[in-house]
UniProtKB/TrEMBL annotation:
Subunit structure: NDH-1 is composed of 14 different subunits. Subunits NuoA, H, J, K, L, M, N constitute the membrane sector of the complex.
Protein name: NADH-quinone oxidoreductase subunit H
Membrane-spanning ranges: 15-38, 91-113, 133-155, 176-193, 205-225, 262-280, 292-311, 323-347
Record PANTHER family: NADH DEHYDROGENASE SUBUNIT 1, NADH-UBIQUINONE OXIDOREDUCTASE CHAIN 1
The species this protein was found in: Mesoterricola silvestris
């Protein structure tokens, strides 16, 4: 750390802050881009298809379809940018950024490895330092803002399919956020705090997924609703409302909306790992090295990202009334019951 900082003529603290900004923003963005390839390749494997195989690197190498990522990016950059005549042009341009920026900011508080102590200085593996006063409330608050990007995109398009998609997205998020928040409150209660570093340290012996399995179940299901993924992709619903709030979008604005969905998946997977699967903790290793802790976190993160993709291509979509029923009559009572049980157990322990 100090050697690299000296090479760049920077203070170690300044160097580490710059490095963290690059890691926290470039990491999820790179993984999100790769997830688009994994989704296409994985869905092809699940459906016994060939998958992306037309784009070649330098016209020669297929590389399992990876050049398709570059081909898609070039296509989005060069495609003509159309805006419908009746759209609200200012909001139409602004909406993709309202969806993309909150998705990118949610990862800032997540610790992606064990803190490094060097030269008497502690370097924390999260962009926001421990004890910042926001803790895990920050990603939940930022995540809930993302729905405004979808609503703005829907309303500004002046298209009935887009409006239907936006209304579905807002109803879906309101229905599931209450259950999700109660599940997280149970974690705060058990930990005695809401800082992610405290939550991970509290899982050194036993991961939260075991004593709070029903809370994990509620949070896991709600994450699919929050990210608008199948079986909860009612905001898009290609077979019912064309493409929902995407309908009038093309070129880079469409790419930003799509990319924000995949960044949400990365952030949702990071939250699941941090809250229920010990974060960077390694099973049966009391004090893992910094490198091992980062590798463990990334491995868990990638696994849950794959689970999001696997479920999309395995489970059929619910009807909208089934979505509402599950949110208000299954998830909310289950989450409330889990919180009451955890509170009772805490009371019994004194």
């Amino acid at each position: 750390m100090e050697f690299l900082a000296r090479l760049l003529h920077l203070q170690p603290q300044t160097f580490w802050m710059i490095a963290k900004v690059i890691i926290v923003f470039a990491g999820p963005l790179t993984l999100a881009a790769l997830l688009t390839w994994v989704e296409r390749r994985g869905s092809a494997m699940i459906q016994d298809r060939i998958g992306p195989n037309r784009a070649l690197l330098f016209g020669r190498w297929r590389l399992l379809g990876l050049p398709q990522l570059a081909a898609d990016g070039i296509k989005f950059f060069l495609k003509e940018d159309l805006v419908t005549a009746d759209a609200n042009k200012a909001l139409f341009w602004l909406a993709p950024f309202l969806a993309f920026v909150p998705a990118m900011m949610g990862f800032a508080v997540i610790p992606f490895g064990r803190s490094l102590v060097q030269g008497g200085q502690t370097y924390h593996m999260s962009l926001l330092e421990p004890g910042n006063g926001m803790g895990m409330l920050y990603p939940l608050a930022i995540g809930s803002v993302a729905v405004y990007g979808i609503l703005t995109a829907a309303w500004s398009s002046n298209n009935k399919w887009s409006i239907l998609g936006g209304m579905r997205a807002s109803a879906q998020m309101v229905s599931y956020e209450l259950a999700m928040s109660l599940a997280v409150v149970a974690i705060f209660l058990r930990t005695g705090g809401y800082d992610p570093h405290e939550i991970i340290a509290h899982q050194a012996v036993l991961w939260n997924v075991i004593p709070q399995f029903f809370g994990f179940l509620v949070f896991f299901v709600c994450m699919f609703a929050e990210t608008n993924r199948l079986p909860f992709d009612f905001a898009e619903g290609e077979s019912e409302i064309v493409a929902g709030f995407h309908t009038e979008y093309g070129s880079m604005k469409f790419a930003l909306l799509q990319l924000s969905e995949y960044v949400h998946i990365v952030t949702a997977a990071a939250l699941i790992v941090t809250l229920y699967f010990g974060g960077w903790q390694v099973p049966f290793v009391a004090a893992p090295s910094v490198t091992l802790s980062i590798a463990a976190f990334v491995l868990k993160l990638v696994f849950f990202c794959w689970v999001f993709i696997w479920i999309r291509w395995t489970v059929p979509r619910f009807r909208f009334d089934q979505l509402m029923f599950m949110g208000w009559k299954v998830m909310l009572p289950l989450s409330l019951g889990n919180l009451m049980v955890q509170a009772f157990l805490m009371y019994r322990r004194g």
